[in-house]
Amino acid sequence: MSTAETTKKHHHGDLRRALIDSGIEILEEGAPFSLRAVARRVGVSQTAPYRHFRDKMHLEAAMAAEGFRDLRERLESVVAESGESATPLEELAVVYVRRAVDCPALYGLMFAQPCGEDDERLHASASVFDVLERVAHAGYPDRDSHALANAGWALAHGLVSLHLAGKYGDVSQRGLESRVRESFAAILGAEASPDTPVTP
């Protein structure tokens, strides 16, 4: 994006989003991360980011919130395709795990710091939980959907964290997703669903 294009987008109120997107790009590339680096990537002055973010941590919080919003959209896409009652909870977990593997640096950032009550990460992560709870309620109406959603998130998070830490060895993506389905089958008391391709 040229400086002229960025300036034009800024006049339309998109600079904040451009800074967040560029920050995520830099993070995933493993390049040195700073507000100055993000400003250079976007093509604006070094002081421009401070119009939207008071410091590096504030930008990182916004990037983490964007990660949660993106995850929610991917989960919602799966639900919209098959319906809440027909969506196996483990298939949402597969999407969760797949996204973490695709963007490990952003995934790490999403859980790096505790959230304050007014932190946008808190609201964004709550929207992810809402999707899980809705699907849990639709698929298992006789069970505690809140507790089931909590358990499902914890299980998916634990599995992908172990994978990213190298604790499963050189397992393939397909092997990891099979492990996710088998683990959910174990806690839900059902047979694991077949390795059905999930779009998001």
Structural commentary:
There is one protein chain. Helix 5 (89-102) packs parallel to helix 8 (145-164) and helix 5 (89-102) packs antiparallel against helix 9. The protein has two domains: 3-51; 56-188, Orthogonal Bundle (Tetracycline Repressor, domain 2). It has helices at 3-11, 15-29, 35-42, 56-82, 89-102, 104-110, 120-139, 145-164, 173-188. The model is unreliable at 6-12 (pLDDT under 50). Helices cover 68% and strands 0% of the residues. It is built from nine helices and no strands.
What's a concise summary of this model?
The protein is mostly helical and 200 residues long.
CATH superfamily of the largest domain: Tetracycline Repressor, domain 2
What proportion of the residues is helical, as a percent range? 55-70%
CA distance, first residue to last residue = 26 Å
**Could you tell me the mean pLDDT?**
88
Please outline the major beta sheet: none
Structural class: mainly alpha
What share of the residues does DSSP label as strand, in percent? under 5%
Which fold name fills CATH's third level, the topology of the largest domain? Tetracycline Repressor, domain 2
Tell me the CATH architecture of the largest domain: Orthogonal Bundle
What general outline do the C-alpha atoms trace? Answer: globular
InterPro entries: Homeodomain-like_sf, HTH-type_TetR-like_transc_reg, HTH_TetR, MT1864/Rv1816-like_C, Tet_transcr_reg_TetR-rel_C_sf
Pfam families: TetR_C_33
GO molecular function: DNA-binding transcription factor activity; transcription cis-regulatory region binding
Keywords: DNA-binding, Transcription, Transcription regulation
